[in-house]
Amino acid sequence: MIRFEQLEVRYGSRVALQGVDLELGPGVTGILGPNGAGKSTLLKTLLGLLKPNAGQGWVLGIPLGSPESVRLREQVGYMPEYDALVEDVSAFEQVAFWGELSGMAAPQARDRAHEVLHFVGLDESRYRAVSGYSTGMRQRVKLAQALVHSPGLLFLDEPTNGLDPDGRSRMLDLVLKVRDQLGASVLLSSHLLEDVERCADHLVILDQGCLKASGSMNGLRSRLARRCELRFLDPLTPGQEAALQELGSLLATRNGLYDLELLEPDPVAPFRWAQAQGAVLVQLTPRHDRLDEVLLRALHG
Amino acid sequence: MITLDRASLRYGDILGLSPTSFSLPMGGGITGLLGPNGAGKSSLLQLLCGLLPPSGGEVRVFGEAPYRNPAVLVRIGMVPEGDRFPAGLRGDRWLRMMGRLSGLAGTELESALARALAMVGMVDRAHLPFSSMSKGMRQRVRLAQGLLHQPELLVLDEPFNGLDPEARLELMETLRGLAGQGKHILVSSHILGEVAQLTDRILLLLRGRLLAEGSVSEIRALLDRHPVELRVHSGDPRAVARWAVEESGLAGLRMEEGAVVLSVRSPRTFLPRFQEAVSQGAFPFTALSPLDLDLDAVFHYLVQDHA
Amino acid sequence: MPIHAPTLPPRPLQGEGLAPALVLARFEVRRILRQRLGRFFGFAFALVLLVDLALVYFKPMAGVAGQLLPQGAAFQAGLLGKVLLFLLWLQVAQVGGGLVARDTLYRIRPLMYAHPVRHLDYLLGKGLVAVGLPFLILLPFILLPWGVSLLMAGAQGPVWPTAPLHLIPAALVVSFLMGILTLGASSLASTPGGGFAWALGGVLGCGVLGTLLSGLMGNPGWYAVSPMALAQAWPRILCGASGELGWIATGLGTLVHLSFWLGVAVLRTRPREALA
Predict the structure, then answer these.
(1) CATH code for residues A225-300
(2) Which residues of chain B lie closer than 8 angstroms to A284, CB-CB?
(3) pLDDT tens digits for range B84-99
(4) Could you say which of 3.20.20.80, 3.40.50.300, 3.10.580.10, 3.40.50.620 is the CATH number of the domain covering A2-220?
(5) Any CB–CB contact under 8 A between B282 and chain A?
């Protein structure tokens, strides 16, 4: 759906994206990187608002920088980070408005606005002015706005901003539902790694305009041989903790979670050890890279 | 160290915090203050930091009421929510200004400044104006401000808001370091994962009430209406299932690809038997992961049961 | 008997929608119609219109004796008179001042440009409302007295049978002047209130400047600095009534104002600055 070949974008003399090679298919792609890494430049490029200064790119089959790229915006949905809502207008009316702006005829846009608002879970309230909405409802209006024209590519910028745990969880469920039902390619940028971890199939890491890493989530989070995480029913006594070294070398502990490199790759060994020590295991999982480790490795080599 | 006795806070007719009682013991470490927006987190912090008197009841920090009480306030460092600074000002000048406000001067101020900046890793960058600092750097300067007068209790209101993942991780590292040096730290957040990464000890607020307090595993153990779900990965999940149905205390069972999920009423009695079976090789085993013992699940159950 | 689970149905056929500029304009008009302040202006304008019609009715009466009152050019120009234009300036500043500023306040513009809306579409859509609104308000002030006069007295009525040919172009120029000026003012502000203030400030400030300059230089041509004076001059000039401002000064002043405020609006709504 997206293909970049050595793409470069400059603002005057400042390089905003540099030598980016990227190929993204359907599914959710998480975009990570510090502020100013080039996320908003990437977005503007995808929308055809910036022309590549060097290299080539295709989005949904449309070459970037070609006159056709205005049409690109009919097929991309964008959910901005900030509240881009017309406060004195109802959710229904503004979603229909955005649909029409994307080139839909008025009656279709109105039908579709009802549909997407139901989809994101705004029922009766959709006729009320947006100014009285809660943060969660506002985020859902913004999502509906991005979906109304059935885009082939969806860019979600911090969709969980300001939401409480329940609201976040519902928003992320919606993102997955969008992926499954709409078949759209979803780009998700979030400051919260958990959000990306939960939704993303692919990962793109940007820093200072360069692509630091990209690939499938599982590919990047390589499984670490012989590493495993252990948790016990009751906190270990200092004596038990010391005895952990019979099992392997202890690399880190955090809130009762022991990160261990086993002497031998045998998942039963920790159980035998616990039996002998009088401790009870509640968790024994092979250790994958955490997303924060993937990120730090990509940013700092 | 912190005691609330039916302390409440109202802003006119608006509820900030319902009458709440709890006490936090002395000693270093990080306590997470959790709750959705509007749950009363900021109200509680304002009471603790003596910014407002309680509308009813009593608040005691270090044994005394903090409101307008310098003796208590010098022992508390507060880092309020937000990211507002005089844009053109330099970080160190602003810190000096704040230091003078807390009564520091001369060499004492300079050494306090150097110490606080070292703690947050900003020694070489504090001379920058706020306008050219990243959000993470500004957050560190704010933290340094809270540390200037060497408080014993550090209170941070939503310190991770708006930080990018890297800055977030760095700040967490800094906080863990401070806790290691014996400071007591109270961090509020509405993002569970942040708190889960930082600490096991939580205060959970919901709708202006204290809903739960303690370590995550203690609170989970109290939620005994909800069976614990254990996912067992195995080369032969059917064998695990066959073993499990013979055991008492199994509340449910669900097959997945390459795994079986066991619902268990009392993990305290079930897990030792499971451990024994694995050790004796009763069935092939590759991994064991509990699905709902973490903070996410605990929060969800608490809200579901009590809201 | 299938179960129809609620899903988001597949992409509808993308029928031919309206041009983005029209969609934008319609959205704005709906919003304006909902505003409560509209009733005040509606009442005020109706009052002015009634007075106009009464004049048309009473004018022949007053001259019953011998049709002494000629169908003067000044009377024709007076149909788009001072009071009406002042009220209209207020109304257009209030409505037009919010057109761009509201988008700035709610950060709508970046999202606009993320849709197939070009810079030109945006300006056209907003301009259509800003210019169309005063024009539509002025139209009845021209057509109703004209119609009444024709019905009552035919070609002998106080309003010339050819009056619309003079007055409609005047109304058009005035509307452009008002619309483009408020559009520029609105794009300078970041709240609708600010847009209103900028627009009024622009109009009144230039007015004061015009008075000062013409006094200092001793040349009434300097009144052309004032948009209010320009708006009043156009109906007079096009009807052939004498006034302080001549053809050249009026044309030049209007041109300068239009290009200045249009330039401001263009510069302040560029897509480049959106999506920052």
Answers:
(1) 3.30.70
(2) 287-289
(3) 787 788 989 999 998 9
(4) 3.40.50.300
(5) no
